[in-house]
Every structure is written in C-alpha cells, then in structure tokens.
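G., the chain you wanted modeled:
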Amino acid sequence: MGVAHEAIAAAFGMTPEELFAAQRAGKTIAQLAEEQGVDLETVVAAAIGAHKDALAARVQAGELTQAQPDQAQARMEPRIREHVVGLYGPGDRGGRGFGPGMGPGRRGPGMGPGFDPRWQDQ
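Predicted structure as tokens:
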C-alpha cells in the first residue's frame, strides 16, 4: 500500500485494508469523507503531505535526486484530486489506485518499494 492511501485511511480513522474494502464496494473517497464527516480538503492535504514526506525521505537517503520528486510533485496533486472523486479505482482490477507502483517492466523494477533509480535513464 502506498503512503497516500495510508494517510487517507488515517484521516478517516480506518485501516488501509478497510479503506480498500470500502473502495472495492464502490465507495469513492469523496463519498467516504462525506459519510465520515471529514472535510475532503483535509483528506487531500493528508495524501499530498504523506507523498511529499516519502519523496523527501528518499532524497535524504540518496535514492532520488531532487529533480525526480520535483517532477512527481507537479503531477501529484491533480492525480490525488482525481482519485478522491472516483476517477481511478482502488488499485485493483484495472484501477490505477495508490498501490505499490508500476511493478516490473522492460526498463526495470518500476516505481514501487524496490525502485532502483539506476534503471531510470537506460
């Protein structure tokens, strides 16, 4: 599970697994926010903050250059906003979601937990 998904679940006071289950049952994050009485902007801010913190930690650890998270952050907020209104699924059965990354591919291990930046420019 991604850090943004975990932050969204925490904003609702639920576990990431409970959030996935609710999404698989057809609920959008916006619908859950309304049901839970949580302001949607609070949920979006939690997801963005968690994502930024995770990228900053990877820069600090020397896993990414600062340019890489700068590029990601430019795309992050619109995608998170699209996700919370239900444009993307929960990361299962065709949805883009907030799962662990793109997985293995032609150019390397993807952007998930095993991401190795040495593959990026090949």
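The chain is about 55% helix and 0% strand.

Shout if anything looks off.
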